[in-house]
Each structure stands twice: as structure tokens, then as C-alpha cells.
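Progress note, sequence design subtask.
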């Protein structure tokens, strides 16, 4: 335990270092400085305790997370990608009732993340890509189709938004499929008052830098049954039964299943827990900043309908991640030059997820068969879209004006 006096001394150092590295208002990075003094102090406390590997603090974070999102079971891992990996391999594990078999299919939106897709493919499952909705960038529920052997959906809640969960759940129920919710970009978003990630059999989350909360690296899985939780728990660490209620108490090296080592560390759990405690505040700030930016742009004298902003889906209470923009047709030829200009002049941008993932070389390598014309919206999002960050603290007027000025310059390119 750090004494009060020492804690004060450490905090003074952290505050000083934070001040030294404060960004000017002529800079709008994707990733703003995301750690508070409390976050850093909770990490330091674990470091100083000498016990940084997974232990009590990780369990504390898992319990708090369960209560926060309203899920029975939570299991922390070392990244969002590891969360997806663990879920995929649990779904095909011999211990899993009604497990998926090699050659079974899963539905996934074409605007997806690499490690939402590949773990399921690595398990021998086949992707059935579906186009997305131009208004919210999430899977288009109206295009869902059960093919022979379609057994699961890997649904992605993009940048805090979500598809219509009522429609999605209806489809899943009538076709008896597993639902995995990749909520890596949407911790804190609610559909009809229920947290995203808690609708399906499994929900996965990422705490990578710039997500809704961050522990540097880190991830979480939520699930509904004790069987699934025990299976994930075993596979997270080597396949042994250590830490399970029904473990072999005499032998710590009892390997009951196959497994990985995807354990987080207590030091990251401490930072994640500290961040989760102030997530609601950050959600409010991000929402406020989003409104400020959109209004400031639309009310500017140079506004000439340069962009379309994506909107939250009906019944969604969003926890925003970044601010995606679609460039309107008139300015589309300027996109490449303009993004270069933005990035060279203090406004950091990136693609919306990875655009139409089917265009990526990795998909070519795996020779997926699909018709280009079935993914017009995903392609449109890739062609027209980019996104910028959304600060978790209230924005200053000078930063707001700097950003607005830069974004409206597209008319000059
Ligand atoms: C939708 C989605 N899934 C999974 C991941 C992987 O998370 P991580 O970076 O923690 O491995 C990301 C990362 O940004 C993501 O956006």
C-alpha cells in the first residue's frame, strides 16, 4: 500500500508530466491523452506491489464489468482480438454442447475487423459475408439469409452504433444460430436500455488505446452460462482447471482441455477498472463533442454539404468511439489529396474499420467467393469514408474551430 504522503508526491509528478505533454489546440489526434491521474496511480500501485500478473484485481475488474453491463459472467483477456479468438475456439471445442463443426458457416458484415473474421476461419468455419447499412455502417438485417450450414453470426457494433437488435434476434431465434457480438467498438452503447454485448451468447470488448475505455491492451468476454464461462476460463490459461470452482485441488497442473495463454495482467486490469468507473462521464463528453463538431460544421459559412454524418440507429443510446464522415459526391475526387492534407496539418484520420474487408490482400489469399455487386454499400463506405477521433474530455472552442476550419477546406482541393 502506498502511503498518503507518497501518493501525493507521485500524483504531483504525474500532473507535471501530463502538463508537459499537453497538446496544442492546433492538433487533433485520433488518440488524445486518455489516462487520468487515478488511472496511472492504480497501475503504479499494482507495479509497486510486485504482483503484476493476473490475480485479485483482474477478478475485481471482471466482477465490476459484469455488474456494469448486466451480464452474469465476465472474463478478462489480453486484447479484443484474444476475446474473439477464445470465443471462436470455444465454439468448436469438444466440451461445447452443440458445437460448431469444420465447414459450418457464420455470417459477418463485409465492413469488419481482421480479428473478428480470422479466428472463426482459423477454426475451420466458412464466412458468409453480408453488406451493411449506409446509415449506421452495421450489418443490414434485411439481407440476412440462412444458407445450408449457417450456424452463427459474428455481429459487429461499429464505432458505437448497432443494427436493429430486435430484427437480428428474431432472425437468430427462428434459425437457431449462435450470436457473437463484437462490441470492441461499442462498450457502453445500449439498445432499448440493454447494453450491447449482452444480447448474444458471447460479447467481446477491447480496451485498446482510444476505445471507449483503455488499459493500453486488454479485452473482455461476457457470456450467459456457467458451462461457457468455465470453458473460456480453462482455455484462457493453458487448458488447465486452475481457478475453477471444481478444480483438482491437489494438482495445480491438471490439464483438462486444449488452451492458450491469453491472460491479462493485474496492472492492466487496475487501469481498466479505474477507466470503467468514469466511462459514463466520458460517454457524455464524447456525445457533447460530437454534437458540437457536427453543429459547428453545419452552421459554418463555408458549409456546402461536403459530408454526410452517420446517425445512431433507432432505439440506440450510443457510446461514441470516433466520428466517421462520408464525403459527398461533389468532393469525392479530392479525397486522397485532402486526407494527405489533413494528416499533414494536425488532423489525424483513418479508414472506417478497414473499409470493405473483402478488398484486403488477406481475403484474396483465402480465395473467398463472392459477388462484388453484393457489397455496394461496404464499397461506398470504403470509397467515401474516413474517421476522426472524439475526445473524452470537453473540447475547447479553439480546438473546435481548428478542426472545423480544416475539415471544410475540402472545398478547396
Ligand atoms: C471491431 C473490432 N474487433 C476487434 C478488435 C480487436 O481489438 P484489439 O485491438 O484489442 O485486439 C478491434 C480493434 O480495434 C475492432 O475494432
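Output:
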Amino acid at each position: 500500500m502506498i502511503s498518503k504522503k507518497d501518493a501525493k508526491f507521485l500524483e504531483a509528478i504525474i500532473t507535471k508530466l501530463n502538463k508537459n505533454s499537453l497538446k496544442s489546440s492546433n492538433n487533433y489526434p485520433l488518440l488524445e491523452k486518455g489516462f487520468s491521474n487515478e488511472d496511472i496511480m492504480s497501475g503504479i500501485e499494482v507495479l509497486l506491489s510486485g504482483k503484476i500478473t493476473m490475480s485479485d484485481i483482474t477478478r475485481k475488474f471482471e466482477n465490476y464489468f459484469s455488474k456494469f453491463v448486466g451480464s452474469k459472467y465476465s472474463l478478462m483477456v489480453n486484447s479484443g482480438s484474444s476475446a474473439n479468438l477464445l470465443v471462436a475456439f470455444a465454439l468448436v471445442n469438444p466440451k461445447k454442447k452443440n458445437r460448431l463443426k469444420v465447414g459450418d458457416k457464420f455470417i459477418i458484415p463485409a465492413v469488419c475487423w481482421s480479428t473478428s473474421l480470422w479466428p472463426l476461419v482459423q477454426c475451420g468455419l466458412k464466412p458468409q459475408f453480408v453488406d451493411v447499412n449506409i446509415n449506421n455502417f452495421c450489418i443490414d438485417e434485411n439481407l440476412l439469409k440462412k444458407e445450408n450450414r449457417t450456424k452463427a453470426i459474428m455481429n459487429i457494433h461499429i464505432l458505437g452504433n448497432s443494427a436493429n437488435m430486435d430484427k437480428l434476434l428474431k432472425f437468430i431465434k427462428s434459425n437457431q444460430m449462435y450470436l457473437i457480438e463484437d462490441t470492441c467498438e461499442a462498450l457502453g452503447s445500449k439498445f432499448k436500455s440493454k447494453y450491447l454485448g449482452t444480447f448474444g451468447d458471447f460479447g467481446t470488448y477491447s480496451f485498446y488505446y482510444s476505445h471507449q475505455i483503455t488499459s493500453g491492451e486488454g479485452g473482455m468476454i461476457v457470456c450467459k452460462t456457467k458451462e461457457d464461462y468455465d470453458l473460456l476460463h480453462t482455455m484462457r490459461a493453458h487448458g488447465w482447471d486452475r481457478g475453477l470452482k471444481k478444480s483438482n485441488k491437489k494438482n495445480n497442473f491438471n490439464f483438462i482441455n486444449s488452451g492458450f495463454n491469453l491472460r491479462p495482467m493485474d496492472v492492466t486490469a487496475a487501469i481498466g477498472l479505474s477507466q470503467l468507473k468514469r466511462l459514463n462521464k466520458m460517454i457524455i463528453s464524447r456525445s457533447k463533442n460530437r454534437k458540437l463538431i457536427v453543429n459547428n460544421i453545419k452552421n459554418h459559412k463555408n458549409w456546402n454539404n461536403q459530408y454526410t454524418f452517420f446517425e445512431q440507429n433507432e432505439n440506440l443510446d450510443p457510446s461514441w468511439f470516433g466520428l466517421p464522415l462520408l464525403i459527398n459526391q461533389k468532393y469525392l475526387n479530392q479525397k486522397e489529396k485532402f486526407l494527405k492534407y489533413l494528416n499533414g496539418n494536425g488532423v489525424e484520420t483513418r479508414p472506417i474499420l478497414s473499409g470493405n474487408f473483402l478488398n484486403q490482400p488477406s481475403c484474396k489469399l483465402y480465395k473467398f467467393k463472392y459477388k462484388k455487386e453484393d457489397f455496394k454499400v461496404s464499397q461506398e463506405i470504403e470509397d467515401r469514408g474516413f474517421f476522426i477521433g472524439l475526445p473524452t474530455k470537453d473540447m475547447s472552442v479553439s480546438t473546435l474551430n481548428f478542426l472545423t476550419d480544416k475539415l471544410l477546406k475540402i472545398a478547396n482541393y
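Residues 42-276 form a domain with the Aspartate Aminotransferase; domain 2 fold (CATH 3.40.640.10). Work on this subtask will continue into the next period as scheduled.
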